[in-house]
């Protein structure tokens, strides 16, 4: 086929290539997929495997740090999509990976948190990511506790700001 991109002549769909690139940490293939004009944030957020894992879930599950970095750079990418089977976010998958691969897994978790992943979301078993951390991994537990505290404190600050309409500025009416 002339002008074909994304291996259409080989039968793999852009969705399949996206998920495979995330699984294998294949940044060349990922860049090819992301460069296709049909691939936008909506495509990235809704392209899932059989159990509802997005490319972000897959990259987190396999510790594909470079692929994760590329994905998180995409404008409009949802950082907390919830899969269908376990109702888990990519952060849940990253913690499961970190339970096996301590140092590298911590980097995956930190990258997701830095991108705004919410550590308060519970899965089907009502567990937050911190609830599935290996109890001996105090470093990972600390990272998740700080992230959860920062998000909770941030929510409280926003709520306080919304409620405080009677400060000194309003006296100058």
Automatic annotation (TrEMBL):
Gene3D superfamilies, alphabetized: Ankyrin repeat-containing domain (1.25.40.20)
Organism of this sequence: Discina gigas
Aminoacyl-tRNA synthetase keyword on record: no
UniProt keyword annotations, A-Z: ANK repeat, Repeat
ANK repeat ranges per the UniProt record: 51-84, 86-124
Segments for region (Disordered): 151-173
Protein known as: Ankyrin
């Amino acid at each position: 086929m002339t002008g074909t991109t994304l291996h259409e002549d080989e039968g793999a769909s852009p969705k399949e290539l996206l998920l495979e690139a995330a699984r294998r940490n294949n940044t060349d293939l990922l860049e090819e997929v992301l460069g296709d004009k049909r691939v936008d944030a909506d495509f990235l957020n809704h392209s899932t495997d059989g159990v509802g894992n997005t490319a972000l879930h897959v990259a987190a599950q396999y510790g594909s740090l470079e692929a994760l970095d590329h994905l998180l750079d995409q404008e409009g990418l949802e950082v907390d999509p919830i899969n269908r089977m376990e109702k888990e976010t990519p952060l849940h998958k990253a913690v499961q990976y970190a339970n096996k691969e301590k140092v590298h897994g911590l980097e995956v978790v930190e990258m997701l948190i830095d991108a705004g992943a919410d550590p308060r979301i519970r899965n089907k078993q009502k567990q937050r990511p911190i609830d599935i951390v290996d109890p001996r991994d105090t470093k990972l537990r600390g990272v998740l506790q700080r992230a959860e505290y920062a998000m909770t404190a941030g929510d409280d600050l926003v709520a306080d700001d919304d409620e405080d309409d009677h400060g000194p500025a309003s006296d100058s009416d």
